[in-house]
Structures are given as C-alpha cells and as structure tokens.
Design brief:
The chain is of the alpha/beta class. Helix content is 62%, strand content 7%. The protein has 42 helices and 15 strands. Helix 22 packs across helix 27 and helix 25 runs antiparallel to helix 28. The longest helix has 26 residues.
Length: 930
C-alpha cells in the first residue's frame, strides 16, 4: 500500500514497531527526534501541524531555544531520507503529503468508525476483523515521543480493545467457544485489570461446559483486584458469578425457565430488523420492544428466532406465552398469564396471590434484576400486556397485530414495524420450499407468484408448500390457480391447520373490530385504487372526514390498513382480496351500488375541479354534476392537479370501467371525458383509449346521443394522438352522426376540428382544410370563442400540407393571437410553431427561425415536452435547408429523445430525418444551435 508523492511513495506504520517504507523499501530513521517528527506529522496526515504542536511531539516539555531552526534541520534530513516532496513548508508549520490511508493508525481508526456505522451484524463483524488485522502491537513503539505516546497510546489501545470485545461478541455462536477462550486468556494476561475481558472469558468458559474453570477464573480476578486496588469486581461480574453458582436454578424455589418455542428452520430475511434488535442495550437492560404487523407477516418467527440468538445474554431464563389476542381461542387474561409465569418461576400454586395486582407485584419482585427475556406473543392490546411487565433489568418482546400505541407512548416501548418482504427475501423464502433451480427455471412465474402472494411470508410459505407437494406441476400452474381472486385465499390455506389459514387469520383481526370499523373495512374492498385518500374513503362510506379518519385509524392500528402518508391508506394485496370477499357476502347489492355511486360522484366533482386548471374548455354546458357526498379537493396550482391525478390514476381509470359495466352511462362518459386532458398531458395513451372505448360502448348501448358525441369524439382524439387516422375517422364519424341525431352543437366544432386533424394525418390536406374551415365558421356563428383558435390551428396545418404557406401563416398567426388572448400559453406556443413551419415553407427563413425558437422556449418553460417535438422537427428542417446540418441534427436528436421517452409514434420519422444528415465531422464554422 503506497501513497503517491510525485516520484516518491511512503507508508508509515505506528501500530507496533515504528517503520517507514519509501518506494516499498524500509528506511531507517536513526534519530529519535526524526521519528517523533515524522510520527507527529503522520498522525495529522495531509493537514498543517503548527510549530508548537511539532515542538511538543519532538521535545515534549523541554524544547530547544531555537525551535524553528532545529525543526528546519530535522525536516531537511527527513526530506533527504523520504523524498524532497514529502514535507511541505507552510507559513505556520509543516504538512506531510500523505494519504491518511497510508498511515496504519489512521486507517485503523477509520475502519473502526465504518464498522460502528454498520447495522448489519455480519458486515460489522467482517469490518472489525479487517480493522483488527491492521493492529501490529503497542502503538508508537520506538517513536521516542512521550508526548505522542501519552496523547495517542491510550486512545488507540482503548479503541483496539473495544473493537476486540465487539468482534468477540459477534463471534459468539459462529466461532467455537474454545477458540474464544484461548484468545480471551491471552487478552486478560495482557490487560489483567480490564473487567470486560474477564467477563467475556468467564462467560465463554461457562458456555463451553467448563463451569469450574469459570468460577476459578472469577476467584483469581477477585483476588487480583483486592491485592492491586482493594476493590471487589464490578456489578456485572458479581451477577455473573451468582448465576454460575446457581447453575440452572436460582435460590430455593426459583427455577430458571427455558420456555422459548422451537426456532424457525431456514429463517429468511429480516436483516434490518434483526440489526435493530441487536442494537438493544446488552446484558438485558430494562426495555420493551413491540414487533407489530399484519397477520402472516412473520412477527412470531422473527421474535422467536432472535430470542434464540441472544438467549445467552439472559441468564435469568426465557419466558414465553401466546396471549391469543387474535385467534380462534379466547384471549389469555392477565390473571391466567401471571399465574403461569409465577409457577414457571417456582412459586408453589398455593402461594400464588389471588388478585392481578398482587400477582403482578410478585412477578416484578421475582424477576427484578434477573436479566430475563420475556416473549409475549400475539397480544391483543396494551391492557393485556401491562400487568405482565417484569421488574428492572429484563427485556420484554411483544408481538401484536395492533400497534399498541399506548405501550409506546406511556411505557416507552420501542416499535419495530414489519412489512411484507422485498422481492429478494420473498424469493429466498420460496426457494427454501421449492429449491433455487425450480425458481431459476421460471423467473416470470416466480415474479408473478411473489406479487399474487403480496410478498407476505405466510402466503409465500403456503404457496411454496403447495408447489413442493406437486413437483410435477410448473410454478406457472400454481400462479394460474392464484390468479383467480375469488379462489386465492382458498388456495393459500391448510384445511387441517387454522394457524396457517390466511382467511382465518385475517378474520380474527376483522372480528375484533367495532361494527362501524368493520363496515368501513368491507366497503373499502370496493375501492379500485391500490391506495386511496381519506377523502375518497369517506365518500365511499358516506362518512364525514372526521368520522372516516377515526375509522381508518382503527384499521391502521389493527394492521388491516397500511398508512404510508398522513391522509393516504392502502391495503395489503391479500387483505384487499379478503375485504372484497366480505363486501360481497356481508353487504347488500343496494349498499354496494350506493357506495360506488358516492365514490364516482366525488371523483367526478374533484376531476371537474382539477380541470379548471388543466382543461377548462372540457367543462361544457353538458357536464352537469350532482352534489358530491363531501367537498371535492380544491386545487390552486396546475402542478398540484397533475400530482393528484398521478396518485389517483389507477382508481380513476378503473372507475370508468366500473361505471360502464354497471350501465351508469353518465358517470362513465363524463369521467372519461374529463380525464382526457390528464391523459394527454401525461401521455397515458393506453388508458385514454381504454376509457374512451368503454364510454362509447355504454353510451351507444344506452342510446345516449349526447354521451356518444363526447365519447366518440374523445376516442377519435385518442386515436389521433397515436397517429391512427383510420380508427379516428371511424370514431369521429360516429360522433358527428350522434351530433346530427341529437341536434347538439356544443361539440360540433370540436368534432369537425378533429376530422380535419384525421384527414391531415392521412395527408388528405384539401379535405382537412374543408373540415377545419367548417369548424371555424360554426364556432364563430355560435360564439364558441375558445374553439375558434383550435380550428384555425388545423386550417394552418392543412394549408401547410397544401403548400399554401402564406395563408397558412395567416391562420396560424390568428390562432396564436386568439390563444394568447385566452391565456392559453401552451396552444399559443403550438400555433407559433405552425407559424414557423409556414414561414419556412414560404422561404422567410429568418422570421421562421425566430418564431420557431420563441415557440420552443415557451414550450420548454411550460415543461411541455410533447409540444416541442413538432417544433424541433420544423427547426431542424429549416436549419438543414439553410446549410446548417449540425444544428439540424441537434434539433432532431432532441426531438428523438423526447419521442422515445414518451413512446410517441413519430420516432421513425425523426430517425429518417437524422439519417439524411451527412456523417462527416462539422466544418470549423459550424456552431451548436442556440
């Protein structure tokens, strides 16, 4: 390991005998002053060391009369030995040019800091082992500086010993105790007064069955401390001695319980949670830990597995009790639990007090200071747990489906919330049942299986058991069984074991709910969103926000809902299935329909409110809405509406299908229509087409001409956005026919405009112009001011296609002015792009370039990436036409990037344009486009 200093390399070793390597070869510093000088500089590694600090390091309390001159002499000699660039002179001192990693003492300290910051035990153990390998012996040996030895020696030695102790603790259970005993024996010989090493030696001897030797070692330490210091061993060692004398039994009548259930075979995952548990104070300091989570998430498995890992830390024993808080059996009462614990601790039955208070007091007395681990599994609530809490010096681990908030707030419990596995741990658990080869053979089926099981450990274990029972059936076959939501919970169960029946496990939590919360849970099974807001849940349930918040809080506390945000909730996937079952079986069809109508009404009004900032032109006179079940969300900024849509998109699109499926025609077509602005802005073309098709189908079947006008026009617009003009024409003709049949005029202009757009995409420019002009005249005749510029935009595009560039520019400029008057910056910029294209066609290149660059700047300011594509294409063509190929290529490359990111169908067109650019390097006069 070397540090580069120009042509010189240096490595400095201060842990053990002092050594310097220059260029890989040892260099001997015969003068103790030189060694002290180099060591002082090295411990500052690259930082300035003042003259005073160097004087203390080299001469201690007796510096020479001329410190600077003496130091200059030593520095000069040091440079001759180690390289001229090694030591740099600064105004106030000197600096050694060396990387801290080349100074073993600094490298050692940094490695220990990295280990301390690591929470994962195996990684921390590896880092400690690597750091300790750097240790070469007593620090600063041979340096010849009492001042440095006094300052750095105790620090380095203490850090070394503490690291050794940590590593030994982490080695426990992984390394044979005999090896640890040998190492600790050597360490106590070197540091005979360090009680923490003695404690580990005595404990390791006892753990390996050498109890007599452990007692003898304690006796030897006690005599040593009495002779040397006149004191007794510390409290921890005295308690350990008492435990050894007691062996497996304490004082008369006090049995040491060992009640932990069998450890989980093949325990998987939960590394962060185990690390958090491992960080609990060592030695069984008083504390309560609540491991909470939904049914089947693995709370008991984690608690039992970790308790087995650390049971040696609790010589007072381990108490375990299933409190049956959520099960088919009756919950255990505090009276019964206390009686059982007291008998386990050796209290005769006739001596067990009669009241809860007296039993609780006796338990605290028995366990006070005993360092006992108590595992209370499946607690119902804090009231069931509190009477069982032992005295000080013990640790209580509680598992519960409830959050036990009172235990955290009032009793100071620490909370560890379990969630479903990530994909890696979920796959590892599955591999334990079916084997890694079978998983590797069907990666697609495995991914879907994890998703269908919601990565819930119990569901994965059941799915794995089923797959292992039928080795001839592919995992894809198991997935096929689970895809049917109606049968999923039937598949994930063992009919002979209620403890592994997911539906039964969920039912115990559900049956503990109050009636209002149970109804709320059921109705939420109708909500189509992966997550949902408090407001939408309130609308669904017909509740006000305050009542809904209280009910949602009850469900979250019982882990029947997750709460990722203050007013956001979501189901675990399998709990959603369970709620869906309940709402079908325990709620009437009328109540289900009423709940869905309330939800649709609320979403419709909220989407309409959002469109005031997104597409106010969509709020025509035909969009009449009833009062919502509670106030809609209010929006103040365009970005806020888009963020809301992105969060609610999955529910919104699903609700269009639900409304159409139930024949609720008005809900279906109005919601689909009001979503089109969001679909366009977010480029959600598939959702746009799917919802528009559903709206067309339901309005056509219902004979709703008004709804069909909107729905078919909406579908035509979606097809136009995806450059499918034939399908667009078919839909738009149906829309026009519905307009003529129904006599409506509100949408006639929009339909004519879209027909013009469809013919434009088909390159039938004369027909496109004809429809666009009809749209302009009709909009003006009926005073539809907002529709006029849209129609003019299509007129300009059609005339560009006809090479009637001057008239095209006039129409585009008129559209630009009209959009600007309406405050529609986006469409005004698009119109300016058409102006640029028309002027370029007319050969008015300078005017065209200015218009195009202004349009591009405006669209970029609006973050309207989609709108920039055509403008970039136009500017590229203009630049190529005027001999600026490099600039043209830049515009088209940017357009291609945006098109590919948005999945726009113009990718092929842009790639063809780029192919026309010569591949030779740019001429010296070329410059990047502005």
């Amino acid at each position: 390991m070397t540090a580069h200093l120009g042509a010189t390399t240096i490595d400095i070793r201060l842990l053990g005998p002092f050594q310097v390597l220059v260029g890989g070869s040892p260099v001997v510093l015969t003068s103790s002053r030189q060694r002290a000088l180099l060591a002082t500089l090295a411990l500052a590694a690259g930082r300035l060391v003042s003259i005073d600090a160097l004087a203390r390091g080299v001469w201690g309390e007796t510096p020479p009369a001329h410190i600077r001159g003496s130091l200059q002499t030593y520095v000069m000699r040091l440079r001759r030995l180690c390289g001229e660039d090694t030591v740099v002179t600064e105004p106030d001192g000197y600096r050694l040019v060396v990387d801290p990693s080349r100074v073993d003492a600094l490298r050692f300290l940094r490695a220990l800091d990295q280990a301390a910051a690591t929470t994962e035990p195996a990684q921390r153990r590896a880092l400690l082992t690597a750091a300790l390998a750097t240790w070469g012996g007593a620090p600063l040996e041979g340096v010849g500086s009492p001042a440095l030895a006094a300052e750095w020696g105790p620090l380095l030695t203490e850090r070394h010993l503490f690291a050794v102790e940590q590593r030994i603790d982490l080695d426990t259970g992984l390394v044979p105790d005999a090896r640890l005993v040998a190492e600790l024996t050597d360490l106590v010989a070197q540091h005979p007064l360090r009680e923490s090493l003695w404690e580990r030696l005595v404990r390791a001897l006892a753990r390996s069955g050498r109890r007599a030797e452990a007692l003898a070692r304690y006796a030897g330490l006690r005599a040593l401390l009495a002779d040397e210091l006149g004191v007794e061993p510390g409290e921890d060692l005295r308690r350990l001695h008492a435990e050894l004398l007691a062996a497996d039994a304490g004082p008369a009548g006090h049995t040491v319980p060992r009640q932990l259930p069998f450890d989980v075979a093949g325990f998987t995952g939960r590394g962060p949670e185990i690390a958090e548990l491992d960080r609990l104070p060592p030695g069984g300091a008083s504390g309560i830990v609540v491991i909470e989570g939904t049914a089947g998430v693995g709370k008991t498995s984690l608690a039992v597995h970790w308790s087995h890992r650390v049971r040696d830390r609790f010589p007072g024993g381990q108490l375990f009790l299933d409190l049956r808080g959520h099960s088919a059996a009756t919950p255990v009462t505090p009276e019964a639990a206390l009686a059982g614990f007291l008998r386990a601790l050796g209290v005769p039955p006739e001596s067990v007090p009669s009241t809860v208070e007296e039993r609780s007091a006796l338990l605290r007395s028995r366990l006070d200071g005993s360092r006992t681990l108590m595992l209370l599994d499946n607690a119902r609530d804090a009231d069931q747990v509190r009477p069982l809490l032992p005295g000080s010096g013990n640790l209580v681990v509680v598992t519960s489906r409830n959050q036990l908030r009172g235990l955290v707030a009032r009793d100071g419990a620490r909370r560890i919330a379990l969630r479903s596995f990530d994909d890696g741990d979920a796959a590892a658990l599955l591999a334990g049942s079916v084997g890694p080869r079978r998983l590797a053979a069907e990666p697609g089926a495995v991914a879907e299986l994890l998703q269908l099981c919601g990565r819930l450990p119990l569901a994965l274990a059941l799915a794995g058991e089923r797959a292992s029972r039928f080795p001839g059936v592919s995992l894809a076959g198991i997935v096929e069984e689970l895809r049917d939501q109606r049968l999923r919970l039937d598949t994930l169960r063992d009919p002979q074991d209620a403890g592994t029946d997911l539906r039964a496990a969920f039912s115990w939590s559900y049956k503990a709910l109050r009636p209002a919360a149970a109804r709320f849970f059921r109705l939420l099974g109708l909500h189509p969103g992966h997550g949902f807001s408090l407001s939408s849940a309130a609308a669904l349930a017909g509740a006000d926000l305050r009542e809904a918040r209280e009910l949602a809080d009850q469900l979250a506390a019982a882990h029947l809902l997750n709460q990722p945000g203050t007013d956001r909730y979501q189901f675990h996937d399998l709990l959603r299935v369970y709620a869906g079952e309940l709402v079908e079986t325990e709620t009437t069809a009328e109540d289900r329909a009423a709940a869905l109508r309330r939800l649709l009404d609320w979403y419709l009004v909220t989407v309409a409110e959002a469109n005031k900032l997104v597409r106010p032109d969509l709020l025509t006179e035909d969009i009449t809405l009833g009062p919502p079940p509670l106030p809609a969300v209010r929006f103040t900024q365009h970005e806020q509406t888009i963020a809301w849509y992105a969060t609610e998109r999955q529910a919104l699109t699903a609700l269009v299908g639900i409304a159409a499926g139930r024949g609720w025609t008005a809900h279906a077509w109005k919601l689909a229509w009001l979503l089109r602005g969001f679909f366009a802005e977010r480029h959600d073309r598939d959702d746009w087409i799917t919802t528009a098709r559903a709206a067309v189908a339901v309005t056509r079947e219902a004979g709703d001409n008004t709804g069909l006008q909107y729905s078919a026009n909406n579908l035509g617009s979606a097809y136009l956005r995806t450059l499918q003009p034939d399908k667009a024409l078919e839909a738009l003709e149906e829309a026009r026919a519905a307009t003529e049949s129904g006599g409506g005029t509100a949408l006639a202009v929009a339909i004519l405009s879209n027909l013009a757009g469809a013919y434009y995409v088909r390159a039938e420019y004369a027909e496109a112009e004809r429809y666009a002009l009809q749209a302009v005249h009709l909009a003006r005749d009926h005073g539809q001011r907002t529709f006029v510029p849209h129609a003019l935009l299509n007129v300009s595009a059609s005339r560009i296609g006809l090479h009637d560039y001057d008239h095209a520019a006039e129409a585009a400029e008129a559209a630009h002015e009209a959009f600007a008057e309406l405050g529609d910056r986006y469409h005004a910029a698009l119109a300016l792009g058409n102006v640029a294209e028309a002027l370029a066609g007319a050969g008015r290149h300078d005017e065209a370039e200015k218009a195009g660059l202004d349009a591009l700047a405006e669209l970029k300011e609006l973050n309207a990436d989609y709108g920039t594509i055509d403008v970039q294409i136009t500017l590229g063509r203009l630049k190529q036409r005027t001999g600026r190929d490099r600039e043209a290529s830049g515009h088209w490359a940017e357009a291609l990037t945006v098109s590919q990111r948005l999945g726009d169908p113009r990718v092929t067109e842009i790639q063809a344009l780029l192919a026309t650019v010569p591949t030779e390097g740019p001429s010296p006069g070329d410059a990047p486009y502005p």
